[in-house]
Every structure is written in structure tokens, then in C-alpha cells.
Design brief:
mainly alpha; three-stranded antiparallel β-sheet; elongated
Length: about 180
């Protein structure tokens, strides 16, 4: 005998809206509502992981971006804030905190002697990598209930949805902060 399908938070919200606005198609909640809810559920764990490494999420975005660029782990401030899609003022504040913590240093730009590039220090490289490794271990644990084939299928579907939404909203591919 098949067991009844369990209801999650989104199912309950949909049922409430269906009762109140029966003419409205709430099926987008089944996808976007769940993505949003999942993000909200895992965010505290992600932030706690970064905090255990002395970083907030915004600071990790900076050191993570620099670390994944490869040696010499250096970008201009313009390259950084475009990659992170944040205001330059927000980046300046983050860079100040990271420099004070000894995780980055500002070095003369190779392309423009009048400007300074942002480069990870050895400590910054170590901290970014350690935080990311722990974050990936935690995230793997969260999704461990899904077998590898389901994870592959879900990843492929989410990639397809992401590309469609980016195209619909005319966003540049890869133009978002990522961990």
C-alpha cells in the first residue's frame, strides 16, 4: 500500500491561498517557494560556518571570490564588486574589515599603476579554503537523504530553471555572488 504524500510548509501555504483565492494559480510556489524556503532553512548553518572562521557571509563572498580566481588570488575592486553585484561602497567597507583582519592586502595593480588591486594573504587563502570546505561538508550532509541520481536530476533541473529565469530577467550569466 502506498503511503500518503507528506505535506510540507509550501503545501500548507498553497492550501490556505486556494481557500482564500480559489481562482489564482499558485503553482509557482511549488518551485520558487520551496527554493526560497530551503535557502532560508540552510542560511543559519552557512552563516554559523563562516562565523566559526571569523567571517560574515559578505566577507566570505569576497575571500571566496578571490580564492577561486586562482593564483595570484588578486582582482581589482571593480572586478570584485561586479562579480559580487554589490555597491562599491559596500565592498569598500568589507575590504576594510578584511584588511584589518589580515586576510587581504591592497597591492599596486598590474594594469594601472594608479590603482590598487585586492589580493588574498596566506592567511586569507587558508581561511577562505577552510570555510568553504566546511560549508561544502555541511551542505553535503543536508542533502545526504537524496541519492546521487536524484541530486544530479535536481541539479540539472535547477540549472535549466536558473538559465531560463536569467534570460527572462535579462541578467548576465554568472553575475551573482556565490559561495
Amino acid at each position: 500500500m502506498d503511503k500518503p504524500e507528506q505535506q510540507d510548509h509550501v503545501d500548507r501555504l498553497k492550501a490556505q491561498w486556494a481557500r482564500e483565492l480559489p481562482d489564482l494559480d499558485t503553482s509557482p510556489m511549488e518551485i520558487l517557494g520551496r527554493i526560497y524556503r530551503l535557502s532560508r532553512l540552510v542560511t543559519p548553518t552557512i552563516e554559523a560556518t563562516f562565523a566559526s572562521h571569523g567571517l560574515d557571509r559578505g566577507e566570505f563572498d569576497v575571500v571566496g571570490t578571490l580564492r577561486r580566481t586562482g593564483p595570484p588570488y588578486r582582482l581589482t575592486p571593480t572586478e570584485l564588486y561586479r562579480s559580487l553585484m554589490i555597491a562599491s561602497g559596500s565592498l569598500t567597507h568589507r575590504l576594510g574589515r578584511l584588511e584589518k583582519a589580515g586576510l587581504i592586502r591592497r597591492v599596486p595593480s598590474e594594469n594601472d599603476g594608479r590603482s590598487l588591486a585586492v589580493q588574498l594573504t596566506e592567511q586569507g587563502i587558508y581561511r577562505a579554503e577552510a570555510a568553504f570546505r566546511q560549508d561544502m561538508a555541511n551542505e553535503a550532509d543536508v542533502i545526504a537523504a537524496f541519492d546521487p541520481e536524484k541530486r544530479r536530476q535536481l541539479a540539472a533541473l535547477l540549472r535549466e530553471l536558473n538559465l531560463a529565469v536569467e534570460a527572462r530577467l535579462a541578467m548576465p550569466a554568472g553575475g551573482e555572488a556565490e559561495t
